[in-house]
């Protein structure tokens, strides 16, 4: 009797199918347990509306909490210090994480990648978003159509089945078009992002000698080429991809969940959401530091790539030294470091991917399927039919308990649930992608920071034999020199060093205070032992190294032309080699013709190469096509084409014969070019009026050069030295003879 009462009470109280599903279980319970449960169910039945509202409030609070968490992340300072360092010596970088730094980096990069609200990129993003929403609505329609088709199949309704198939095929047209448009837009977005970022980086890199300073005066970036060519591309692709990967599942999850809440009831959906939240939190805890690992992988890729570049660049020297085994060892070491790191990532991925797949594909799938099955089982339970019809609002009731209706609802809900779970899964997977994006973002913003600091003269470089603390010591004169700043003043036509120290990028003070003055037409010869700072003085004059003190007066850089020992030959035609850094348009603007260029080549006795190399428009790997002497003569021809006020000649005639050298120097002086020459050749003395002699100990002597008197003195000195040597020999022989005589 009591069981019958409880049975009626329970069935009557069950206001939706979920509670009917408990029916069987309940029948097997003991009396006191049954009574308690009955009280609970009655309570629930009475307050069902309040329960639903509470669940909605909980979901709302959950969303607010999520937003709050993102805001906290955006404002929280980074706490942990990670281990990624660009090199052993430089500033230690922090690992990529989702924190304020990440959001700041993204803000900076997105402002470059998407230049404005009305830019092309913003338009593409809006179109992309509209298409994403449209695709999700199409998916909801397809899910319902799927249910209808399977339902008509189960009910053996041929006409409805065929109509369903026709509708299905019609849906395929907008669906496939939307998909391919989405792919196209994603690729185009990645290309646009890359273009904007690359243009921005090029503007910084190729201005103010930044490309020189980054490699020579600063330690932070080892391989700018790889960062510009590879990392920006990876960041752009990742950014375009992440937008799709985040926006689509977010829209999907939202739309599908609303639909599911209607079909299954908010309680089932809430249950599923709790499971999803808990398991995804667990997965996040288990996730390896993907951002840090991606950033480190890029750095190792860069090192490996640059060892190969070095091999190509120095192939001839290495081949002549037979240095391939040593080079192989270096390259293999770099490669093995990279491979070891990739292997580590793969190993970490095995366990993480397994857990991710298990939870996302199987665990969530099972939870979803169970939620879909509850209404079906509930409706088939004994006694359920009597009460369910008036309680379950939307789905199964209208069709009664027919198998067709169940099938339709089951298939539709299952499809929606699978899509919703797929959306959550993609959100989960995109966590890993976001962290990787953080890694790329950190490298690209790091690159921008270094470029901007270096172009404004802020360098970070390890100093020789000097710690950071020592440089703060006011008594340390060398450190003081490095910490000072001098000034550069543009003069009309003089070159003057007033108390300017010569300091290498490592902080080596080569000369404490250099003083000399050169006027136009007064040629200067610079001599001294290797490594004493001869070329360094030119680097300061050329604005490559900072002026650490005193005053440097010099004409504008367009008036000073530099000719190194190994001249640079650009990519381009034979004509481009002679007129560099001008281009053909500049040459035309100066009204210079090919005939003029030929006349210039004739002066350096190189006119025959025009025919030999296939004419002015011939394009070759000039570095290999021309001999060392040819290259130096091309460089001299370049000087005659540009006719600057000053020419810096850094051992630039070492590979040509003395008669060609004479022609070059005579012609240069006849053009009114003032020469600043570094050379060990005595034959060049006659073309200079002043001499700057370094002693290699930090001292120097600047004086007038009278070549004839100097040569005469040098010859006299040589003669005396020879005579002294002969006297020394005779003395030694005399001693030998004395010793020999004593023995007899
Ligand atoms: N980019 C650089 N970074 C660090 N140190 C440098 C750099 N370039 C040159 N140095 C150092 O500056 C010092 C002077 O070099 P510099 O090229 O001026 O010598 P030099 O007198 O021209 O010698 P040589 O006659 O052999 O050409 C050397 O000790 C060299 O190692």
Automatic annotation (TrEMBL):
<dbReference type="InterPro" id="IPR003439">
    <property type="entry name" value="ABC_transporter-like_ATP-bd"/>
</dbReference>
<dbReference type="GO" id="GO:0005778">
    <property type="term" value="C:peroxisomal membrane"/>
</dbReference>
<comment type="similarity">
    <text>Belongs to the ABC transporter superfamily. ABCD family. Peroxisomal fatty acyl CoA transporter (TC 3.A.1.203) subfamily.</text>
</comment>
<dbReference type="InterPro" id="IPR027417">
    <property type="entry name" value="P-loop_NTPase"/>
</dbReference>
<feature type="domain" description="ABC transmembrane type-1">
    <location>
        <begin position="129"/>
        <end position="360"/>
    </location>
</feature>
<dbReference type="GO" id="GO:0140359">
    <property type="term" value="F:ABC-type transporter activity"/>
</dbReference>
<dbReference type="Pfam" id="PF00005">
    <property type="entry name" value="ABC_tran"/>
</dbReference>
<keyword id="KW-0813">Transport</keyword>
<dbReference type="GO" id="GO:0016887">
    <property type="term" value="F:ATP hydrolysis activity"/>
</dbReference>
<dbReference type="GO" id="GO:0007031">
    <property type="term" value="P:peroxisome organization"/>
</dbReference>
<dbReference type="InterPro" id="IPR050835">
    <property type="entry name" value="ABC_transporter_sub-D"/>
</dbReference>
<feature type="coiled-coil region">
    <location>
        <begin position="713"/>
        <end position="740"/>
    </location>
</feature>
<dbReference type="InterPro" id="IPR003593">
    <property type="entry name" value="AAA+_ATPase"/>
</dbReference>
<dbReference type="GO" id="GO:0005324">
    <property type="term" value="F:long-chain fatty acid transmembrane transporter activity"/>
</dbReference>
<keyword id="KW-0576">Peroxisome</keyword>
<keyword id="KW-0812">Transmembrane</keyword>
<dbReference type="InterPro" id="IPR036640">
    <property type="entry name" value="ABC1_TM_sf"/>
</dbReference>
<dbReference type="GO" id="GO:0012505">
    <property type="term" value="C:endomembrane system"/>
</dbReference>
<protein>
    <submittedName>
        <fullName>ATP-binding cassette long-chain fatty acid transporter pxa2</fullName>
    </submittedName>
</protein>
<keyword id="KW-0067">ATP-binding</keyword>
<keyword id="KW-1278">Translocase</keyword>
<feature type="domain" description="ABC transporter">
    <location>
        <begin position="495"/>
        <end position="722"/>
    </location>
</feature>
<keyword id="KW-0378">Hydrolase</keyword>
<dbReference type="GO" id="GO:0042760">
    <property type="term" value="P:very long-chain fatty acid catabolic process"/>
</dbReference>
<dbReference type="Pfam" id="PF06472">
    <property type="entry name" value="ABC_membrane_2"/>
</dbReference>
<keyword id="KW-0175">Coiled coil</keyword>
<dbReference type="GO" id="GO:0006635">
    <property type="term" value="P:fatty acid beta-oxidation"/>
</dbReference>
<dbReference type="InterPro" id="IPR017871">
    <property type="entry name" value="ABC_transporter-like_CS"/>
</dbReference>
<keyword id="KW-0472">Membrane</keyword>
<keyword id="KW-0547">Nucleotide-binding</keyword>
<keyword id="KW-1133">Transmembrane helix</keyword>
<dbReference type="GO" id="GO:0005524">
    <property type="term" value="F:ATP binding"/>
</dbReference>
<dbReference type="GO" id="GO:0015910">
    <property type="term" value="P:long-chain fatty acid import into peroxisome"/>
</dbReference>
<dbReference type="InterPro" id="IPR011527">
    <property type="entry name" value="ABC1_TM_dom"/>
</dbReference>
């Amino acid at each position: 009797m009591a069981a019958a009462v409880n049975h009626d009470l329970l069935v009557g109280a069950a206001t939706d199918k979920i509670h009917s599903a408990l029916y069987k279980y309940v029948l097997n319970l003991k009396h006191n347990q049954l009574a308690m449960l009955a009280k609970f169910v009655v309570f629930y039945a009475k307050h069902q509306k309040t329960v639903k509202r509470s669940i909605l409030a909980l979901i709302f609070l959950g969303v607010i909490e999520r937003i709050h968490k993102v805001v906290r992340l955006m404002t929280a300072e980074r706490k942990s210090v990670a281990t990624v360092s660009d090199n052993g010596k430089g500033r230690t970088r922090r690992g990529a994480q989702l924190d304020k730094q990440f959001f700041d980096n993204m803000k900076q990069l997105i402002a470059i990648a998407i230049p404005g609200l009305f830019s092309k990129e913003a338009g593409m993003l809006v179109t992309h978003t509209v298409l994403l929403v449209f695709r999700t609505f199409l998916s909801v329609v397809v899910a319902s159509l799927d249910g209808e088709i399977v339902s008509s199949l189960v009910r053996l309704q041929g006409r409805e089945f065929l109509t369903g198939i026709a509708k299905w095929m019609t849906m395929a047209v907008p669906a496939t078009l939307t998909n391919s448009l989405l792919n196209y837009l994603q690729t185009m977005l990645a290309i646009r992002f890359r273009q904007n970022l690359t243009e921005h980086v090029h503007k910084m890199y190729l201005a103010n000698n930044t490309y020189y300073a980054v490699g020579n005066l600063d330690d932070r970036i080892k391989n700018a080429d790889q960062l510009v060519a590879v990392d920006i591309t990876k960041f752009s692709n990742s950014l375009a991809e992440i937008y799709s990967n985040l926006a689509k599942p977010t829209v999907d999850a939202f739309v599908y969940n609303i639909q599911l809440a209607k079909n299954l009831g908010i309680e089932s959906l809430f249950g599923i959401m709790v499971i999803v939240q808990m398991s995804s939190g667990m997965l996040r805890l288990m996730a390896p530091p993907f951002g840090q690992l991606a950033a480190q992988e890029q750095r190792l890729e860069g090192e490996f790539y640059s060892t190969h570049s070095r091999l190509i660049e120095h192939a001839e020297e290495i081949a002549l030294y037979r240095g391939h085994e040593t080079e192989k060892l270096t390259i293999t070491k770099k490669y093995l470091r990279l491979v070891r790191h990739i292997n580590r990532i793969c190993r970490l991925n095995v366990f993480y991917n397994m857990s991710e797949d298990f939870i996302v594909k199987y665990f969530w799938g099972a939870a979803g399927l169970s939620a879909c099955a509850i209404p079906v089982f509930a409706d088939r339970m004994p006694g359920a039919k009597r009460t369910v019809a008036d309680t379950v609002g939307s789905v199964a009731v209208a069709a009664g308990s027919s198998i067709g209706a169940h099938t339709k609802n089951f298939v539709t809900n299952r499809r929606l649930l699978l899509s919703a779970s797929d959306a959550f899964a993609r959100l989960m997977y995109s966590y890993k992608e976001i962290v990787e994006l953080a890694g790329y973002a950190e490298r690209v913003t790091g690159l921008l920071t270094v470029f901007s600091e270096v172009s404004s003269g802020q360098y970070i470089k390890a100093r020789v034999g000097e710690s950071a603390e020592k440089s703060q010591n006011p008594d340390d004169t060398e450190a003081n020199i490095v910490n000072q700043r001098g000034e550069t003043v543009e003069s009309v036509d003089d070159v003057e060093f007033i108390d300017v120290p010569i300091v290498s990028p490592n902080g080596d003070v080569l000369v404490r205070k250099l003083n000399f003055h050169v006027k136009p037409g007064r040629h200067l010869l610079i001599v001294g032992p290797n490594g004493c700072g001869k070329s360094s003085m030119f680097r300061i004059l050329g604005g490559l190294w900072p002026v650490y003190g005193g005053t440097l007066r010099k004409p504008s850089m367009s008036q000073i032309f530099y000719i190194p020992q190994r001249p640079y030959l650009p990519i381009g035609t034979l004509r481009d080699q002679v007129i560099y850094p001008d281009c053909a348009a500049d040459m035309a603007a100066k009204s210079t013709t090919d005939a003029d260029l030929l006349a210039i080549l004739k002066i350096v006795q190189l006119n025959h190469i025009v025919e030999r190399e296939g004419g002015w428009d011939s394009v070759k790997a000039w570095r290999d096509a021309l001999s060392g002497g040819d290259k130096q003569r091309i460089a001299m021809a370049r000087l005659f084409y540009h006719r600057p006020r000053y020419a810096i000649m850094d051992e630039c005639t070492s590979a040509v014969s003395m008669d060609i050298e004479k022609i070059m120097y005579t012609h240069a002086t006849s053009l009114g070019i003032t020469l600043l020459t570094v050379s060990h050749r005595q034959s060049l003395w006659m073309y200079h009026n002043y001499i700057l002699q370094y002693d290699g100990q930090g001292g120097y002597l600047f004086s007038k050069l009278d070549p004839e008197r100097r040569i005469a003195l040098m010859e006299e000195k040589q003669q005396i030295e020879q005579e002294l040597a002969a006297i020394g020999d005779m003395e030694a022989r005399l001693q030998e003879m004395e010793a020999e005589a004593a023995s007899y």
